[in-house]
Amino acid sequence: MALKECVKYYQLSQLPLQHSFVSELPKDPQEENFVRLVRRSCYSLVKPAFLTETESKPRVVAWCPWVAEKLLDLEQGERDKEFTAQVFGGFRLLDSSVNFTYAQCYGGHQFGNWAGQLGDGRVICLGEYRNQRGERWDIQLKGAGKTPYGRFADGFAVLRSCIREFLASEALASLGIPSTRALCVVETGKQVWRDLFYDGNVKPERGAVLTRLAPSFIRFGNFELFAYYNDLETLRKLADYCIKHYFPEFLEATNSFSDENNRYALFANRVVELNAEMVAKWQAVGFVHGVMNTDNFSILGLTLDYGPFGFLDRYDPLYTPNSTDLPGRRYCYLNQAQIARWNCQKFVQSLISLYGGATVFNIMEKFDEKYSSFLSKCYQDKLGLLVWNEETDKQLVDSFLDLLQTDQLDYTNTWRMLSNIQTTDEFMQKDCAQYLLPANVTLEASRKEKWNAWIRRYIMRLREENNTDDLSRKERMNKCNPCYILRNYYLHKAIQQAETGNFDEVEKLLQVISNPFEERPELKAYSQEPPEWANVVGICVNSCSS
């Protein structure tokens, strides 16, 4: 019997949520909702700000049907119910979450500096759902009101930022990159005031709430904060919780400090490995996160918190999509692996009381090894190679990227067009570069010859391993070199329309990014590099204002 026929689907009102995070970890004893420093606690109980609202009429404006069906086992038709908008807009609570909604307590390093206590300033977790495939999904509302960790902010979110994270989450998941997921965006009917470019020009924007899911939203910063305050008891409890629920394969390992392979070392090593893999996959598709602070790094290696992210258009390794990052470009594409390693080191050091200093060095050596291995595998697949030769094939990739940078060609489209290369003698005699260059690009003869020389070198590499079934190789390559990515100028146009009340383009983009590898002629407009008008701050580069 097919899985779909075996699954019991729920109405949202009947969704059975569990609450292990609340029941197993230390709680903030103060239950009043005001901004404060929280000690020796993993979370604070808090309710959405809109529960007392009676006049607003929230509405679901974006909905991901496969997340609803496959992750939450929700019945079809739940999107259109008033109850759904109320729950996911933070205006009403499910019966199974009434006494358990909470915000997490964590700290973190931001732009390389310790920032102290941060926490979920505008995020409220409803609870955990374990679906009928055995998967756990924590459900969060982002923008549902201020929490004890809100600092100077109002706790709300605006429509544009919710749409960005909604689409980005599903775009990366469809690309095979570990990510949090997005269920829906609910427009609250409230105005939210924001200074988009931090220039003193505060304007009203449409308020919204994003519902997002992940197996866990625990971050590096959760551990960093307890380590900073030398709260070793809570640190150990949190580590034990993570091992029990996410890495149970380490439960049987010793917890002895003297054993360098104790359960905490194994846990830390696995977290580092997962994040090395995640960042390697970012690099392969040209994704730039933009705000790689340690509080935005997940213990499960999930891409987390989509703010001013971007994908490479023309290949520029110094590209950063974050206007705040422009002076130093700490979080540019070129630096992402280095920053990920730095973040992992901060996480591993936060657990030093559980396994000792020598283990930190051993674990961090693994990051370099794993990242290199994962990235090499990504490039092997992108080139369509059967076997990877570290020395010669890395040179092949590096020279390809040098050509891309010099001639300012589109990163995604050029990788995709690489599958057009054939290994026949007849093809070798042609002007091979024409099969990689877009029709609107004209290169000088000397530059074109550089490309032809690289292509001939690539063909010889394919022949060397008898990789001459061009059609089979093309099929393999097109399964890992996407045709469609979530370019910022597409998002800009969709958000502009959404702010007038038209969400058709948001829906269209969701459909495009859900199948990024299959080329569809009717979607040609969604595989084009951005026009010149889009290469400005506010489109290709964004602020953290949300």
TrEMBL record:
According to the record, the segments passing through the membrane are none
Keywords per UniProt: ATP-binding, Magnesium, Metal-binding, Nucleotide-binding, Nucleotidyltransferase, Transferase
In Pfam terms, one family for this protein is: SelO
Q: Name one GO molecular function term.
A: AMPylase activity
Name the coenzymes or cofactors required: Mg(2+)
What the entry lists under HAMAP family is as follows: SelO
Its family remark reads:
Belongs to the SELO family.
Query: What protein is this chain from?
Result: Selenoprotein O
Q: Which organism does this record belong to?
A: Galdieria yellowstonensis
